[in-house]
């Protein structure tokens, strides 16, 4: 177990920079999720920590040691791969014990540690089986077991749940979180799924185009997104983002409507409104021409447009509303403290 | 196409490729280079020195009526072997594919001659057609046909063609059967519902869909007929009578080892090399196209 | 092709009939050789020879195996076995190693090496026999196993086959092995080689037959009958003059020459077909 420090980590292939300097200090036992769309560099960052990709610039510390130039095996990390990467010709027990075998540990110790990990993961009945004789969830557990037996300083997960069906994904998510808590091991977890990120992370790194847009706890990112990208990536349905002009403590939209906000803003801005924060209010400033309603049970998504404002707007109303029961024009209001204002040029939070 | 992961190191990979590199260099590139080099020289009558003749050996060869005849012989031989063995194999494969059950049994019965060496196949056929004691030639004699491939060039050619084609049927059969079985049943059934009879279905549906296999086999069989039939010819006719079965590969051997005419043999090797190169290019062109569609 | 469409009836039996005729055509030469290996020389010398086996099987085969004509057939079979196994194992070994290097390392000359190997695809041994013979003669490897085996060991097909297979092995396996602490050779032995077992076996079947059936090469470099292989040795059993050949012994030898590869093909039919298809594509 150890702390993990990324100091301005950079990666380029020739002249093409793919990671533009990411820094974070991870506390011992902390669960960090790197989340972002595909191609944002999140897997590359993880693989740099693992030692599978060379670090172009910056420093990587595990505990007190700078490990930039160490082989993966010398970094005392363990990794769970997206497709599990189980050795197909080895039994479950052999798969889990392979790293220890290479390290030259005595047979008895290997057997004991494999048995311990198998017990923890309820894999005991399957130790003699080959990976192809296991279900997806079981393979996933073996991949985790392989990581556990090494007793690593840091756990690395590369989209470990994306090959599982939705139901199993939820179950395994809980298991991973439980296991990580129980072992108290530092973890770095890559995913493109914001739900996984929100539920698993102590803190998350929201990545886009090789840049860490925001680093913070899930609630921080949700409540105070640092950039337009982070604001729209986290939260479902995505935050509405409207162009407007800052006029002190209000933002005037293209159609002339003024929305009160909680910050001082001047000049061109983007106004972020979460669908779940729009509340129906017959006197509210915002009017939406209803196009479609999607009742989801607990809430109803209302899609439409605002006259004079380009783009679609979504609102999430509590309860069930049938499309026919809703008026063709719905008025909304939003509390100033629930609005998000971003500089239109830098796309950073004001 | 490259792997994302690679291991570090310089000496280890070089060490790993070393065995193949050495064997290839010593037994492959050096001899091939020698062949090209020697093709530019002729030895003096005592074999003591070499005289540079440039492309003289090639000019001599191409002007030599025996060599040109050998080209024609090779062409006739290769085309005959290829068509005969592919024809029989396709016929058998179509029949075997018609069976719902039992095609596996026939496959087992038909594939194992693949394991019979061309030279052994040559001995078997020579035995059957032996002018003195051969069973088939004896029965032909009873029918009033005097079989003598030792003297009759046409008969000699016929015999080496049949013996060579015989050994190749298994191979072609396997690929044709696999090709036929890869054609979706639904396509055939649709054609049957459209009213196409067996022969129409074969001509309009099966044959076009089978064409990749057919083309592949054409190239492979021509290569086989060019090079691997040496054993058949050497055991049955030794190139005779009067060179009527001397294909190019046999001539390289006969001129180089029996006739000790190294320059000419080397020049012939180089010409053959170009022929193989051409065939390989055709084959790869085809594979590339197949990959793309 | 049309099994679902046309069932029993006349055409069904004609199908079987056609196949049986084909099988007989394939079998007849071999059957005749087998019959000839079970009768006496006198019976063959008086055509037509019988078409059913005689009682002299044991006699002919033991004569062939123990005495032969120039050299006992047992000796030739041993030579063939050494040659076939040497070529098969040799090719598989050097191709595995070089394919591993090509796929899993970046080293200077890698591309060039790859293309040089590729070139060897184009040149069957038949094309370069004279200079290759000289190389072997200069090394003093005439009439030796290494002379029989080495020139036939350089093979692009096997290298390409393994390269293709290695390319399909997921990258993550190598990464997992690295994370687990395996160096390149450890990864090769513990993971890559065990995973290639089926490919190796399929290739072995093809290469064994290829090696066993070599004719021209052993004909050139084994001038000593003790080193003859069986496939080339048959031809040497024919007398040079007008004498009558010892047909029963020669035919027994022919049967013995096809037995090992035929057994390999039939007993490993699945691997054989796979090897054939793989190595041609």
UniProtKB/TrEMBL annotation, chain A:
Domain ABC transporter: 4-234
One GO-annotated biological process of the protein: glycerol-3-phosphate transmembrane transport
InterPro entries noted in UniProt: AAA+_ATPase (IPR003593), ABC_transporter-like_ATP-bd (IPR003439), ABC_transporter-like_CS (IPR017871), ABC_transpr_MalK-like (IPR015855), ABC_transpr_MalK/UgpC-like (IPR047641), Mo/tungstate-bd_C_term_dom (IPR008995), NA-bd_OB-fold (IPR012340), OB_MalK-like (IPR040582)
Pfam families: ABC_tran, OB_MalK
Keyword Transferase: no
SMART domains per UniProt: AAA
Keywords annotated in UniProt: ATP-binding, Cell inner membrane, Cell membrane, Membrane, Nucleotide-binding, Sugar transport, Translocase, Transport
GO molecular function, one term: ABC-type transporter activity
Gene Ontology cellular component annotations, sorted alphabetically: ATP-binding cassette (ABC) transporter complex, substrate-binding subunit-containing
Domain of life: Bacteria
Family: Belongs to the ABC transporter superfamily.
PANTHER family: MALTODEXTRIN IMPORT ATP-BINDING PROTEIN MSMX, SN-GLYCEROL-3-PHOSPHATE IMPORT ATP-BINDING PROTEIN UGPC
NCBIfam families hit by this protein: PRK11650.1 (NF008653)
UniProt-recorded name of the protein: sn-glycerol-3-phosphate ABC transporter ATP-binding protein UgpC
Gene: ugpC
From TrEMBL, chain B:
Alphabetical keyword list: Cell inner membrane, Cell membrane, Membrane, Transmembrane, Transmembrane helix, Transport
Major localization listed first in the record, in broad terms: membrane
Domain ABC transmembrane type-1 as annotated: residue spans: 71-283
Segments traversing the membrane: 12-30, 71-96, 108-128, 156-183, 204-227, 266-287
PROSITE patterns registered for this protein in UniProt: ABC_TM1
GO terms, biological process: transmembrane transport
Cellular compartments annotated: Cell inner membrane; Cell membrane
Transmembrane found in the keyword field: yes
GO cellular component: plasma membrane
Keyword Transmembrane carried by entry: yes
Subunit structure: The complex is composed of two ATP-binding proteins (UgpC), two transmembrane proteins (UgpA and UgpE) and a solute-binding protein (UgpB).
Family the entry assigns: Belongs to the binding-protein-dependent transport system permease family.
Role description: Part of the ABC transporter complex UgpBAEC involved in sn-glycerol-3-phosphate (G3P) import. Probably responsible for the translocation of the substrate across the membrane.
Protein name: sn-glycerol-3-phosphate transport system permease protein UgpA
Source species of the chain: Aliigemmobacter aestuarii
Gene name of this polypeptide: ugpA
